[in-house]
Amino acid sequence: MKTRGFTMVEMLMATALAGVLMVGVMTVVVRLYSPPESSVQSLATGRGLDRWVHLLNRELSSAQSLQVAADQSTLTLTGPLGLDQVQRQSTHRPVQLRYRLVVIAGGTWLLREQESLDESTNQRMQRDLVGGPFQRLQFVVLPTARVTSPSSSASTLTRLRLRLWHADAVEPVLDRLLLSNAGVSP
What's the predicted TM-score (pTM) here? Predict the structure, then answer.
């Protein structure tokens, strides 16, 4: 009686083929779950800064309150501004947001802190590194603007000037005027 089975060559060929397939699958998985460019690299370009300002504009338009620190380097917003940690989509959950500069490994980086206001767990704080290195960040609250439109009644908007300097820049790389419906808290 002769037993049939796989030869050593067949087993080695199957193992090699499985290895090649796994490398291909892992390459696809890594590309799917990692961003196309890191936050730091994307923020160094104008397009990265524009994306961040677009997010900040959305948050300002939905904020219920706005507060700028006395040194003008920290912005705190409160309202339904939550972002999902994985999908980066709006959850509309009540949060307190804080944008500020922090020193990490000798460089100064822009940090977005999101503290959930509707959960009583130890995982209420979410921190995202927006980019850097930056030298200075400045939020200046300007006098409010009264806006009227034919289709709606008059409203008062808070005007906020955002200025951001790269680590080696004399002039700000970003100087924008932003608008918010939120009232300014002392």
Answer: 0.68
